[in-house]
Amino acid sequence: MTNHERWKPSVTVAAVVERDGRYLLVEEETPEGLMLNNPAGHLDPGETPLQAVVREALEETARAFTPESFLGCYLARFQRPARQEDVTYLRLAFSGSVGEEIAGHALDQGIVRTLWLSLDELRATAARHRSPLVLRCCEDHAAGRRLPLEAVYNDASLFAPLQKL
């Protein structure tokens, strides 16, 4: 990286959903094979993190996600030498609940299926996690971490950018 290039982490959102001691995950196709992840994806321009996590959860699970708390902000770095990729992800994780699967709603491309795993099953499958943040987010949730949704602030300029004269 040259001195005038600015480092830009990739901003993602994740939905952490627990029901009866089991966590909702997706199994997805990746260049590294079938991997497990929380329902998650990239923050798109002009959307709030809450809008993004609701959208991503629906796309990946065919279930409506209702955010209830902010779980936290997480950083992880991923290197894929074959593609000369070195990406740092900034994950904004939210915990909440989902409704039943919406009949006829297709899963996002690359998502093979959804599944519910216990913390012990999550720990036993760590080698198949898309990121070390999958387990960390679920463990933080199980430990009782909850922050108010208002901890993530969205300025109005997100929707109508300020113009400097």
3D architecture notes:
With 165 residues, this protein is an alpha+beta fold. The protein has a single domain (10-147), classed as Nucleoside Triphosphate Pyrophosphohydrolase. The protein is built from 3 helices and 7 strands; from the N terminus they run E-E-E-E-H-E-E-E-H-H. It has helices spanning 49-61, 119-124, 133-142, and strands at residues 10-19, 22-30, 33-37, 40-42, 65-80, 85-98, 111-118. Strands 1, 2, 3, 4, 5, 6 and 7 form a 7-stranded mixed beta sheet that branches. It is globular, with a radius of gyration of 17 Å. It starts with 9 loop residues before the first strand and ends in a 23-residue tail after the last helix. Monomer. Residues 6-139 form the Nudix hydrolase domain. Keywords: Hydrolase, Magnesium. Belongs to the Nudix hydrolase family. NudJ subfamily.
The second-level CATH architecture is Alpha-Beta Complex
CATH class: Alpha Beta
**Structural class category:** alpha+beta
- Note the main sheet: 7 strands, mixed
Low-confidence stretches: none
Name the CATH superfamily classification.
Nucleoside Triphosphate Pyrophosphohydrolase
In N-to-C order, the SSE pattern is: EEEEHEEEHH
Residues in helix, %: 10-25%
The number of helical elements comes to 3
Cofactor: Mg(2+)
Protein name: Phosphatase NudJ
EC number: 3.6.1.-
Family: Belongs to the Nudix hydrolase family. NudJ subfamily.
